[in-house]
Structures
1.
Amino acid sequence: MVPSTSESAKQAAGELSEESGWIERACAGDTAAFRRLVERYSDLAYGLALRMLGSAEEAEETAQDAFVRAWRALPRFRGDSRFSTWLYRIVARRALDRSAALKVRRAREGTFEDAALEVPAPADARGSRVSRRLDRLLESLPEMQRAAVVLYYYEDRSVEEVARTLGLPPGTVKTHLHRARALLRAGWELEERRSGIE
Amino acid sequence: MNCSELKRWLNEGMPQGPEPAARAHAARCPECAASLRAQLEIEALLSGERHPPVGAPPRFVDRVMAEVLVADRSGPRIELWPAAIPLPWWVQAAADPATALACVLVALLGWRIDWLGDLARRAGDLGSRYVIQSLGPTWSAMGLDRPAVTLGLELSVLPALAWGSIILYRWTERLSRSARA
């Protein structure tokens, strides 16, 4: 049976209240309470890092690092935003830092492996092919543009939320999204012409 | 709508209002039709319809918790005064050295009160030797050569030194953090 709207609202309110209890206890140093938060948000943090970095190994390290930073910073968490939004911000910024460091390392070592291939792809053959093409194009975007695209589309955040997460004005996020769409489309059309896929 | 207006519309994420005009233009312009097709396909992929949910790897939570258990929560920053208390900046800045100095004085009073008298005498001697002689009669005329006043002045240097040290430490900490970033 599908739960009614009021039941869903009650359930969400219960989850939030349970979560604020965990946050309070974790602030006081209770690691068991923090574990509950990690269990609840591990998929979210890892998924965001994976979308932004394209590499499972890097994503795991980034998400892990973000949780450790969250644990350290939790006593200073004032509850101005939801815990998930706050954690999101930490993961996104860690992923941006790591992405910039990776770019430098790859340029120095001359390795440009196709990291985007580690992102899970759809099962059907064409879906898989076009999805991997998009992942490759995303990988080629500048960090901030890629971060804006991942947060706006994959994580379904509004422009204002993306701006808060990345610490940018909303107008700058819009500009990043405009440029990212233009670059993605140009790359897509180029590959269409090359491969002749229709 | 012309070609550049259509490109701008695509870059804005294809808001609904101008869509009929954009489609009408794409029907007449093969290049814009290709762009529109590409953008529609990209938007469909980005909207997540074909993306399977991503789950954290097995035992990820255990690995995070192992790191958390050894993590030093206090971090590299010296926090002798809880930052969450809403006090003016100058009270917070003076609180750390003042608290440290108060602790030292209370400990001295409780442990060896005669040490304080000794300390006052020594401080008075030092003051007389280096400060009073150099400043001469002006100092005496102002009544600043009395031992209690001299001790007070000299003790006030200690919190200033401690404050300066902490400001310097935090500045170098900020510098090293920005260098790491």
2.
Amino acid sequence: MANLKAIRKRIGSVKNTQKITRAMKMVAAARLRRAQQAITELRPYAQKTLEVLSSVAARAASDDVVHPLLVRREVKNVMLVVLTSDRGLAGAFNTNINKAALAFLKELEAEGKTVSVAVIGRKGKEYFARRNVTIRHTFTGVFEHLSVAKATEIGMDLAAEYERSELDAIYLCYNEFKSALTQKVTIEALLPITPMPIVEPDTAVDFIYEPDKQALLDRLLPMYAEVEVFRALLESVASEHGARMTAMDNATNNASELVGKLTLIYNRARQAAITKELMEIIGGAEALKG
Amino acid sequence: MASPSDLLHLEVATPLGLALGTVAESVSAPSVRGEFGVLPNHLPLLAALRSGVLRYRTAGKDHLAAVGPGFVEAGREKVLVLTDKFMSPGDIDATATKAELAEAEKKLAAFPDEYAGPDYEFLQRAIDWAQAKLDVLAESQR
């Protein structure tokens, strides 16, 4: 009978776990919706900024106007900005990005470059702290209150370091949001900025620049870096919730399956016990008769 | 009946979405060189924006709002404002803004004189933004 009790207890505990995973899935789904909306709302702003930037940069280039954030130097010092989450239980979300970043880092080191990382999110910090990697910056508490101001702060820090020539290239490593089921590990260059080549139908119309191209570029480029950081943060957050939702959905299904299996074992054991008791009673009765 | 080119499409895009989309008869924005006005059929203009008061006139009524630093792209029948912050007078909390301003000023005063790193700039922006909000509030209550 002790066996039966143990199985019953096990079923109870699996059901409790299932309640938790189901609740987590629901929370992740709600947050995912919000995160997805944030991405959609940023889009027009980001797109327009890039358009304006590219058009100014292209026109400025023909006037020999340069900006420190556009200057390409021989690459010696590289920094990877790795975006992870503060919390776990999100499937392979953090592992994927950390592994990809580490592989890229080793590749760069093999080319003889000095590589450091800037981590955003607790999971990345823990991962790289264990692996003897130079952590140049740690940005924490970013995801508790994800705001434009926070992205601006990070973007300004990075731009300042590039301008001081302490770094020759900065890459962003983050999970790009494809759908709730899939996230794509993305590593892209943040600085130096590469403006899009512009294809313009009405090249005849040039803008009046206020105050002038150089001053506009001075403001546009850092702003672009800030927008990129903010976009990567939003993508990463949406991916995190998507990954967690999927992971928790799987966990809930697995729990259901386990409860089914355990119930079967429990019933079998109960049946066996009843049969055994019956056999004993019959055996006893037969003995009395004899 | 006014022809379409007598009006301006005014759009304010922020990282948090389109904050404003309306049709205006005139728009005035705070550029780094001072306030400037845009009427329909303006020549293409690209101006850098500082924190300040955005004014626009819609159907004979004047409106205003606080905007953060960014850009204005003006064309013949369109004005697009790209800024990281936007707030209409109704959304501004006077007490909170004053506290914001006081705190940022206190932090700024703690910096050595010659210092001009990113965090200094960040504080300066916060001060400008708080001031812009208070300006809008003061003006809308007049």
